[in-house]
Amino acid sequence: MVNYRYLGNSGLKISEITYGNWLTHGSQVENDVATACVRAALDAGITTFDTADVYANTVAEQVLGDALQGERRESLEIFTKVYWPTGPKGPNDVGLSRKHIMESINGSLSRLGTDYVDLYQAHRYDVETPLEETMQAFADVVRQGKALYIGVSEWSADQIRAGAALAKELGFQLISSQPQYSMLWRVIEDEVVPASKEVGVSQIVWSPMAQGVLSGKYLPGQAAPAGSRATDQKGGAQTISRFMSDETLTAVQNLKPVADELGLSMAQLAVAWVLQNDNVAAALVGASRPEQVAENVKASGVTIPAELLKQIDEALAGVVERDPAKTFEGMPKKRPA
């Protein structure tokens, strides 16, 4: 069964393996399979579920809401996000303006079939809206009881500090950051994590398996397995491409002895590794089959000894991305159309 951790400087506990439905519900898997995966997550003790209005253009929220119907709402933590274009994608169907936030939270609640979400997250930083406007809108969402806490995703250290300061002034808590983080992608370690610790924010990390590369199923010099993310032309192949060099794939194979010593699969090792960071509250994992959920949960509660953490670093030397500027590079420079 899964363990639980506090999220940021709050009293909210979440499952350290959190079920996310990016790239799966409403797109890659049928609804009955999605429901089976959610049931498997609940059976494994996962109580925390993360989605976003943009996933499958709002369909993922609907699928998750349907799958959770009948569950005791108070026993769940449901997270969603706002920023990216949704619906007909008009000029105000995007960003973190007051208008878009207020309309988006109502749409998300309707699709999820709930009166409130436990965490409402700014899916990116909006360079075209004053931060004061965004945080005031979030404050009002909290006061209206539509969200209990507020978080962000892929914000820089300075943006997190500024957002947390405004939140404090407005009387609510900014408690989480949702960045990409894995053995191969460590860009948050030098700036985002220290800033987060300063202001009482913890990380809910996505892609702990580096889009599946750290599972070891992709081999250097060989074609990607049929049906894998690297062959998915709907978006999966693009997101995984940065990790698909032969140099990286060769280095990843050197992790197998570490996984074997711990009695873990390579995928479980990848999830356990991100959870060794004391600023990480949860690792987001998705699934296209129910059995994947049960396997992922085995990473919960694992302690990786210092000598094996050093062995991991040595195995991946030369292929790890650590540059904090990569957070800025991935930020939208203007609102997407």
UniProtKB/TrEMBL annotation:
Q: Which Pfam families match?
A: Aldo_ket_red
Transcription found in the keyword field: no
- Gene Ontology MF terms in the entry: oxidoreductase activity
> Does the keyword Repeat feature in the UniProt annotation?
no
Q: Which GO terms describe its cellular component?
A: cytosol
Supply the InterPro entries for this chain: AKR, K_chnl_volt-dep_bsu_KCNAB-rel, NAD(P)_OxRdtase_dom_sf, NADP_OxRdtase_dom
Taxonomic superkingdom = Bacteria
**The entry's keywords:** NADP, Oxidoreductase
Fetch the SUPFAM superfamilies from UniProt: NAD(P)-linked oxidoreductase
Domain spans labelled NADP-dependent oxidoreductase = 16-316
As for family, the record states: Belongs to the shaker potassium channel beta subunit family.
Q: What is this protein's name?
A: Aryl-alcohol dehydrogenase-like predicted oxidoreductase
